[in-house]
Structure prediction request, 155 residues.
Amino acid sequence: MNVPVIEQAKIQARVLVPIVKTLEGELGTERAHTLVRKALGDLFRRHGEEFWRSKTGTDLGQRMASAFGTFARGEALEYRVLEQSHDAFEIDVQRCRYAEFYKELGEPELGFLLVCSADFLFSEGFGGDIELTRTQTIMQGASHCDFRYRRKIAD
Prediction:
């Protein structure tokens, strides 16, 4: 069964949102979010490692274009590629159904915790020579998400 990532995220939210809300009530928001990030961190890193190992070649742009194609399935994302090369992949996400879903739930801050925060953990699984920079997200109210993947060049 090949379920689009957006649908997987919606299914997960039905379980995770009530758990996180309960943790927030018991432990406070900051402590609860720290625990959730810690609990999910290794999982997202492993997903990144598995994704990276499953791809052949060394072209960062091709690998990331493949990843975003997967995340965008089911019309989940609309984005514009700014740069795609061997050592870089830069896009602006202009529409995000993940953010729309969490906003409909009234929980965009949990959407950021459970979806957007995973982007950095996922990219850590690529190894130490790939760096993700992102300064804003639609989930947090920005007009777009600015993903900038770069291969670190050794000095």
User: Anything to note?
Assistant: The longest strand covers residues 77-85.
